[in-house]
Amino acid sequence: MSKKLIDIVMNALEEVKGKDIATLDVSDMTDVMDTIIVASGSSNRQVKALANNVIEDCKKAGFQPIGVEGMDTSEWVLVDLGDIVVHLMQPATREFYDLEKLWSVRPSDRDTFNDGEA
């Protein structure tokens, strides 16, 4: 199911010209989700359009989003699809939060980091 849903999301993002689309496998880091998809939109309007297209295409394919956050400002919109969470951001927001770097820290890396802080 996840592969099919990933394909639906990726196609939906490409249809609305999402930029810098990244797919992160986080299945070994959390039980909450398996995949994070991050994409950028150049404006509030485009971020909202990306989110709406993802939601619409997923619903058409029979996948109901669990939740959507951030549509009011559309600076950062999160679409929760269960095993997949989609983050749609304006470039400055994406650069500031740098989710790709945050989620690239593996458990063994975190243990080493935490050992050095005591």
**CATH topology, which one?**
Beta Polymerase, domain 2
Shape: globular
Oligomer: single chain
Mean pLDDT: 88
Number of helices: 5
Report the C-alpha radius of gyration, rounded. 15 Å
> How do the strands of the widest beta sheet line up side by side?
1-2-5-4-3
Q: What is the total tally of β strands?
A: 5
What structural category do the secondary elements indicate? alpha+beta
Taken in chain order, the helices and strands follow as HEEHEEEHHH
Helix content: 40-55%
The total domain count is 1
Tell me the CATH superfamily. Answer: Beta Polymerase, domain 2
CATH class designation: Alpha Beta
At CATH level 2, the architecture is 2-Layer Sandwich
Short structural summary:
The chain is α+β, with helices and mostly antiparallel strands. It has helices spanning 2-15, 44-60, 91-97, 99-102, 107-115; strands spanning 19-25, 35-40, 67-69, 76-80, 84-89.
Give your account of this protein's structure.
- The chain is an alpha+beta fold.
- The chain has one domain (2-97): Beta Polymerase, domain 2, CATH 3.30.460.
- Helices cover 43% and strands 23% of the residues.
- The chain is built from 5 helices and 5 strands.
- It has helices at 2-15, 44-60, 91-97, 99-102, 107-115, and strands at 19-25, 35-40, 67-69, 76-80, 84-89.
- It has a 5-stranded mixed β-sheet with strand order 1-2-5-4-3.
- Helix 1 (2-15) crosses helix 2.
- The mean pLDDT is 88.
Give the tags.
118 residues, alpha+beta, Beta Polymerase, domain 2, five-stranded mixed beta sheet, 5 helices, 5 strands
